[in-house]
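Tutorial, part two.
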Amino acid sequence: MDYEIRESARARYVRVSVYPDGRVIVTRPRGVSLLAITKFVEERRKWILEAKEEARKKEEARKRREEKSPSTLLPRPRRGSKVHTEAVNRARLLVHAHLESLNAHYGFTYGRVSIKSQKSLWGSCSHKGNLNFNYKIAYLPEDVAEYLVAHELCHLKEMNHSPRFWALVGTQVPEYARLRARLRRYRI
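Running the prediction step on this input gives:
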């Protein structure tokens, strides 16, 4: 079985990770011998093979879903360009409008609102109550953008994705599950 070994100064234990593409990575703390790694992998061989098979099945299912509803690649204007600046400004106006509208119901207190050029996140909420949104929210359909703002706003009360969190989102965006699925089709 092929696997990659990575050494980490922060690791306290040997651990194995199986990634969606089937790669197996063993992380070891400094000082753990290759013999110990080989023994560790052999002891977990059955689990690793099962995890690789599960990852393969999930990847195939993801590809089938993508074929049924292909993802939409959003524009990627050069940072600092006029198009990028306009998108950031549109995003700022859109986010603040949705925050004002939604928060009239929720009544949450939030800190700074930032529009960022993130590569993999649509939004986030910090423990300090700061809300961050990807500028590409400006390219989303209005109802999907509203869901995204409600999602991050509700993290001010529930910093998780528990049933209470989704119930809170659902008070203002009852079709959140459908909108969340639509959001997944857009690639940042």
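The two ends are 35 Å apart (CA to CA). In part three we will examine how such features are distributed along the chain.
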